[in-house]
Specification:
Two copies of one chain form a homodimer. In chain A, 76% of the residues lie in helices and 0% in strands. The first copy, chain A, starts with 9 loop residues before the first helix and ends with a helix. Chain A has helices spanning 10-32, 39-46, 50-56, 60-81, 89-104, 109-133, 137-147, 156-175, 180-196. Chain A has two domains: 7-57, Homeodomain-like (Arc Repressor Mutant, subunit A, Orthogonal Bundle), CATH 1.10.10.60; 60-196, Tetracycline Repressor, domain 2 (Orthogonal Bundle). Chain A is mainly α and 197 residues long. The interface between A and B is large, with 37 and 37 residues. The first copy, chain A, binds a DNA duplex (30 and 30 nucleotides) through residues 7-10, 13-14, 17, 38-40, 48-52, 54-56, 58-60. Chains A, B: It comes from Roseibium album. Chains A, B: One of its GO terms (molecular function) is DNA-binding transcription factor activity.
DNA sequence: AATTAACATACAGGCTGCATGTATGCAAGA
DNA sequence: TCTTGCATACATGCAGCCTGTATGTTAATT
């Protein structure tokens, strides 16, 4: 009974507008891509004006940035949800990979985070967002495995980088209707090979 | 002595204009990115008019397409140049990877083929260009290794896909000043792991 | 000479970002 | 409580740029 209908607070109104903009932007950008989606179309779908958009976001790319943050946070949240503990290193990595693939299968998410996002914001900013949001989970896993001697004595950052890229590719393929079973096998092959020697 | 000079005039002029356009586009797109480079700027740098550009290319993306084709062809050519024969599978793969990294280190090439190209043309068309140009060298290598029992019984296309993505990431990192030694080590680790069991 | 290729020029439409206008919520004093 | 002043949350209009196309012009080819 806190807020009746006549009295609509500013914060509430603001949040609602923002949600409408992000929702419309997500829908259109997922369907047609960032460059092909104009701000007039976005605000029309969100049922606000361009003035509202530029009041909330500094420019069109800033709206995309907010969208990317939102999706990245969702991924992090979903992955942290099913964090299973103490297994073999390979099983742990595979569990993480599957959780990532699953989170990335949300409709449109792979396109936002793996295609349009990097194109608009650049790889550098995307990496930074990953760092803030998901953190370097993969690298930590590698460090843990390496500490137990499960990996040879090689620099881990590049290896984590390459693996991360491969995971992204697999997630994109699966999200686009690829054979998830086959891609999971290939992922396991990569991971098993690393952890063996 | 087939064609004297009078007969070659038009074609020569045409080729010159096209070269100028591609050169200017390459320079500007490498420096500032595709979206931030307008056609007025390109034709100004190439010292022609926008009419010439739209006479040669159907639209701005088509110019980008030609640029991508040009770079992809250059990569294929450089890689085929140093094709060394019969070595161990791992050495063969590593030789190919190093040749790829080297070819991708040409200034601006990684940005064109790995960042702007996919953003403008989409992953599908980029894959098609790769297929036409470089061919599925990596996949063939895997098939060869698999035929000798060097890889387990798993689908090879996804594996080649993931490896290709990892190679691209390594090439991009190296081209951007990353530690090539470290990335080559990581690449070798990935490959060795796969070829072992 | 006629045709056609290779451009050059001009124009229409759309989009982005900003500058300015307006209404509503909010906070504080009388 | 009321109202007065200010900030917030938008709405509207405009200027500049960019893309793609249509039309005009020059020079080579036939």
């Amino acid at each position: 009974m806190q807020d009746a209908k006549p009295r609509r607070k500013q914060a509430e109104r603001r949040a609602e507008t923002r949600r409408a903009l992000l929702g419309a932007a997500r829908k259109l950008i997922v369907a047609k891509g960032y460059a092909e989606t104009g701000t007039p179309e976005i605000v029309k779908d969100a049922d606000v004006t361009r003035g509202a958009l530029y009041h909330h976001f500094s420019d069109k790319a800033d709206l995309m940035r907010a969208l990317v943050h939102q999706e990245a946070a969702a991924v992090a949240s979903e992955i942290n949800a099913d964090t299973s503990t103490d297994q073999s290193p390979l099983d742990a990595f595979m569990a993480g990979a599957k959780a990532y693939f699953s989170a990335m299968s949300a409709p449109g998410r792979a396109r936002i985070l793996l295609l349009e996002g990097p194109a608009v914001l650049g790889l550098g900013e995307m990496a930074e967002i990953d760092r803030e949001t998901g953190g370097a989970t993969l690298l930590e896993g590698l460090r843990h495995a390496a500490a137990q001697g499960a990996i040879g004595d090689i620099p881990l950052e590049p290896l984590a980088d390459l693996l991360s890229s491969a995971f992204d590719r697999a997630a994109l393929a699966i999200a686009n209707g690829g054979d998830s079973e086959a891609y999971e096998q290939a992922t396991k092959k990569l991971l098993a090979g690393i952890l063996k020697a």
